[in-house]
Specification:
Keywords: ATP-binding, Coiled coil, Motor protein, Nucleotide-binding. This is Kinesin-like protein KIN-14I isoform X1. Belongs to the TRAFAC class myosin-kinesin ATPase superfamily. Kinesin family. KIN-14 subfamily. The protein has a single domain, classed as Kinesin, CATH 3.40.850.10. The chain has nine helices and 15 strands. Strands 1, 5, 6, 7, 8, 9, 10, 13, 14 and 15 form a ten-stranded mixed sheet that branches. The two termini are 15 Å apart. It is of the alpha/beta class and 387 residues long. The structure holds adenosine-5'-diphosphate. The site of adenosine-5'-diphosphate has 15 residues, from helix 4.
Length: 387
């Protein structure tokens, strides 16, 4: 049947290109210097295959530290090259697997660039989200003689430990619960589920999600903090794209812990009638740096504390999975509950870890790479097709 042929095709592809069944896959990407005339010397000493060596000068002399990942992308690697071997991952969503792609790294290290793209977005510099969605619909179309695919999306955010539906039309702000349901992929079953049939449908919904986020952010904004200037993230749309910027002025935006776009796919094999359900989570995490108490006050401080707590909880979950502990503390934050099925579950999970090459980012760079190295040791359960 068409289903078996596709599975066989994939098995070959995975053997050739990538087998995501072992552990969480980690790709490391180094951002280029932001100014061409930068006088900085990069902290990245050497990149070869999956290895990256960071120079760690100290008062005792020059030191080095090496890290190993599935792949390391240097400063000059293009968006197309970063995406080039991800097709099997996208394909497997259509084959009934759950896939999770998320970006990690300090603010300004290139997470948005990888997932979405730069501000002056063109087809050439589109990020992973676009390419993944584009491929998904192209592939579904290619298979239309053998399969009928129904695609629907959800979009939620975690803000101050509350899970919020971003695709509500009436502007209501219902709080949602997270469930562990690796079989259906619907781990936030009460979030709106919107049918889509093209990449542009998804982008329209992302626009709606953005509007809802802005409404929520204004309503929740702490008035007393408006007159101050803070280094903040903002989430905005330009060219219909979901992106994150750093603002250095008063703003009505708020610091969210994470937002997640989930694409649910249900495929029916037209010959055998077999139904396959796959999903793809595209997760946008807050910057990994810990916000210092002295940098923010008021509502921003509360938000930053929630983010710090969530990222610590993520670190604890990763540490405990890496040590193969029987108890994994998923329940300590909404973020870890949301990612539960993707971390140590049966999903195929890919983390892009980002670092900045500047010497003043060295401490964050080392802590990011150490975290990523631990993530890379986390073994996933064998990925299973959801039938
Ligand atoms: P983050 O999302 O981690 O806060 P951004 O993606 O916003 O970081 O990146 C910070 C800045 O660096 C942006 O201006 C972005 O366009 C630029 N940048 C990041 N990665 C790259 C890259 N690989 N090539 C060119 N510019 C990049």
């Amino acid at each position: 049947s068409g289903y078996h042929r596709v599975l066989e095709e994939n098995r070959k592809l995975y053997n050739q290109v990538q087998d995501l069944k072992g552990s969480i896959r980690v790709y490391c990407r180094v951002r280029p210097f932001l100014s061409e005339r930068s006088s900085y010397v990069s902290t990245v000493e050497h990149i070869e295959d999956g290895n990256i060596t960071i120079s760690t000068p100290s008062k005792y002399g020059k030191g080095c530290k090496s890290f190993t990942f599935n792949k390391v992308f240097g400063q000059s690697v293009t968006q197309a090259e970063v995406f080039s071997d991800m097709q099997p991952l996208i394909r497997s969503v259509l084959d009934g697997y759950n896939v999770c792609i998320f970006a990690y790294g300090q603010t300004g290290s290139g997470k948005t660039y990888t997932m979405v793209g730069p501000k002056d977005l063109t087809e050439k510099n589109q990020g992973v989200n676009y390419r993944a969605l584009g491929d998904l619909f192209v592939l579904a179309e290619k298979r239309k003689d053998n399969f009928r695919y129904d695609v629907a999306v959800q979009m939620i955010e975690i803000y101050n430990e509350q899970v919020r539906d971003l695709l509500v039309i009436d502007g209501s702000n219902k709080r949602l619960e997270i469930h562990n349901s690796s079989q259906t992929g619907l781990n936030v079953p009460d979030a709106s589920l919107m049918p889509v049939s093209s990449t542009s449908d998804v982008i329209d919904l992302m626009n709606l999600g953005q509007r809802n986020r802005a409404v929520g952010a204004t309503a929740l904004n702490d008035r007393s903090s408006r007159s101050h200037r803070y280094p903040l993230f903002s989430f905005s749309f330009f060219n219909n794209i979901w992106s994150r910027n750093i603002l250095c002025s008063q703003t009505k935006t708020c610091l969210i812990t994470c937002s997640c776009l989930t694409v649910h796919v249900q495929g029916k094999d037209l010959t055998s009638g077999t139904i396959l359900r796959g999903c793809m989570h595209l997760v946008d995490l807050a910057g990994s740096e810990r916000v210092n108490k002295s940098e923010v006050t008021g509502g921003r401080l509360k938000e930053a504390q929630h983010i710090n707590k969530s990222l610590s909880a993520l670190g604890d979950v990763i540490a405990s999975l890496a040590q193969k502990n029987t108890h994994v503390p998923y329940r300590n934050s909404k973020l870890t509950q949301l990612l539960q099925d993707s971390l140590g579950g049966q999903a195929k999970t890919l983390m892009f870890v980002h670092i900045s090459p500047e010497p003043d980012a060295l401490a964050e760079t080392i802590s990011t790479l150490k975290f990523a190295e631990r993530v890379a040791t986390v073994e996933l359960g064998a990925a299973q097709v959801n039938k």
